[in-house]
Amino acid sequence: MIIITSTNKIPKFNNPVVALGVFDGLHRGHRKILQCAVRKARKIKGTSIALTFSPHPQKKKSLYSLKHRLRLISELGVEVCIVINFSPSFAKMSATDFIAKILVKKIRSRFIYIGENFHFGKGASGDYRLLAKYAKENNFIVKIFTVIKSDGRPISSTAIRNLINNSEIKEAERLLGRKVSVLGSVIRGSRIARALGFPTANINPHHEIIPPAGIYAVRVIFSGKQYNGICYIGSRPTVCVRKEPLHVEVHIFGFHKKIYGRFLEIQFVKLIRPDKKFASLKDLSIQIKRDIISCRKILKSRR
Questions:
Q1: Residue 72 burial (10 A CB sphere; 0-12, 13-18, 19+)
Q2: Are residues 149 and 30 in the same domain?
Q3: Number of domains making up the chain
């Protein structure tokens, strides 16, 4: 997938089919818009383009970092992703200017795919109705997508964010249409887990939403391959006197490579237990062995 980060450097694409949105979380509603754009572009021998924004226009903490979003968008078959820097100056651009200067002049959009609840332009004044108003005179066609609902409630990034924060992993997974996951780079840690016999990769999750503290059965995606593992999220109360920020560590079964600085995607399968303080490192080590056995059984049953 081609990634473009400047609206001054957009080449001329053949019959652009533009999916417009923040696409935070890439949930089922977002995926439908992007997948339909890909199919339409292939049908008319055009170019599928995702047009998104970073940072989040509503200043919300993102479900996924930009890097994670780009990876997921690419996996759907989108050919080009244009990432607009949502700076204070860009936020002042009117909705009509956004249509005229970006969608029409810069991209030369042929089709624009948009969710019915998505807004754009200064003060979020633009929507699908405004696009439809300017469509004919600017030679593009607007395709509007209704909000997908689950149990009568709209599927939204906010709802999924709340589910993850409450450890409701299975329900969040259902709304996403795939596993809840975190993408982060491997950083150096204190090596305490290694001393206990369970080497872990310490993860910097790059400001992504992470589940609450606890022990999780996980699958780990690294370099295009999938591995089973156990993930710890917590403040390490057994070894730390003072309360620390949450750490994210993953022990990958049967994995012995040095991967500092590389990216891992951790897919959460099931919460095993909450984080807790143990009386000694020996007690902690015994519990980790039990947790690993539990994780192996769960991951084997859900192969």
A1: buried
A2: yes
A3: 2
In Å, how far are 20, 21, 34, 217 from 145, measured between CA atoms?
11, 12, 11, 35
Containing domain of residue 9, as a range? 2-154
Amino acid 301: pLDDT: 87
In this structure, the answer to whether residues 94 and 232 fall within a common structural domain is no
Residues 256, 117 share a domain? no
Burial of 254 (0-12, 13-18, 19+ CB in 10 A): exposed
Is position 165 within any domain?
Answer: no
The answer to whether residues 184 and 264 belong to one domain is yes
State the Cα–Cα distance between residues 5 and 95, nearest whole angstrom: 20
Paired tokens of 298:
């769960």
139, 154, 169 - which closes a domain: 154
Same domain, 107 and 10: yes
DSSP lists the bridge partners of residue 229 as: 218, 252
Q: State how far the Cα of 55 lies from the Cα of 61, in Å rounded to an integer.
A: 9
Q: What is the mean pLDDT of residues 185-207?
A: 79
Query: Is 174 part of any domain?
Result: no
Average pLDDT over residues 281-286: 88
Cβ–Cβ under 8 Å, residues 199 and 249 = no
Report pLDDT for 191.
67
Question: Which tens digits make up the pLDDT trace of 211-266?
Answer: 999 999 999 999 989 999 999 999 887 877 667 778 899 999 988 888 889 999 99
Q: Is the pTM of this model over 0.90?
A: no
Report the run of H or E that residue 85 belongs to, with start and end: strand 80-85
Q: What is the pLDDT of residues 255-279, one digit of tens each?
A: 888 888 999 999 999 999 999 888 8
Domain for residue 228, yes or no? yes
